[in-house]
Amino acid sequence: MLPALPAREIPYSANVYGCLNLLERTFSQASGLLSHGSFELHRVLFHKNAILRDALPLLLELEACAEDEGLPLAWLEDVSQLFGALVTQITEAEQTADGRYVFFIFDYLLPTLTGAMC
Asked: What is the pTM of this model?
């Protein structure tokens, strides 16, 4: 779970809360995948790509506007470190992922679909 934004007298902007929502959802879903212990390659890659494609750019953008938004850099560093650790864990899970689902598609469904199209 990501740390909550530090409380302050003036509320953060809607953009900050929107980014936080996406970061929390991405982190929660990827962490949930790891808690199952049995990894399917397509799921692992989906969550890894979501972090790299969605969360990382948001973290960089939040860092760029931290001063204007009043975001504590210590909070951003904590969140970034948590995402970094999560990417490391997902990369390790990728190495042990079971690709049977993907092979099932190529070995079974693809020939079936190709045959049906001819």
From this structure: 0.79
